[in-house]
Amino acid sequence: MGLTSVLKLNCISCNRDVQEALYNTVFLPKLFTMILGFIILAFIVIILALFSFKKYKSHSAFVPDKDLLNPVPLSITAIILGIGIGGFIDGILFHQILQWHGMFTNQLPADTIVGKSVNMFWDGIFHSLTLIAVIIGIISLTRLLKKKNINPSPKLVLGGFFAGWGHFNFVEGIIHHHILNFHNIKEFSNNPNLWNYGFLIIGVIFMIIGFTIIYNREHYPARLDEE
């Protein structure tokens, strides 16, 4: 088989079998279910973005002292970036480098050209949505440059990043691994659930680390008169 024939087999727009697998009567009715996890993550990102774009006063429930700079906008922005970058890390490490799973490998194994291509297509959709989250985070971050009374502590960025990454792991793990059973972290394992629950535990640990850093009052020493 020549190189051209091999490339054609892997090309979604060239291979009729791959097109039928993507758009057949089995996959299309399940389209909403297939993107449910993405919708929930997108909803979380949108809500966080709205909070980040709000005009915050320095004095709030998060900042008891009205003279302290507000940590909320930067923390939320970092959480958005953490969700997007955490998704990229998941996709790059588990889907591409280690190739432990694809988006739907528990329902459509990637052991054929068609299976591999369909999973790769949905991996691309997954990466596209994580890219959108990162772009929203960057836009939010640039907007903060124009705001006053914002606490600029790098520790808030670190805490928000871990909190966001933990949110991604937990939401994606609950929905895709346990509720919908789209894939396991490691498909070729004697105990896939061990890896799936480990993924959730890591997500919870990341959230605890992130919010512990964010809520540490040592990050709030900067006062308005110190700008």
UniProtKB/TrEMBL annotation:
The chain crosses the membrane at residues 31-53, 74-98, 125-144, 156-175, 195-215. Keywords: Membrane, Transmembrane, Transmembrane helix. It comes from the Bacteria. InterPro entries: DUF2243_membrane (IPR018719). The keyword Phosphoprotein does not apply. Coiled coil: none annotated. The keyword Cell cycle does not apply. This is DUF2243 domain-containing protein.
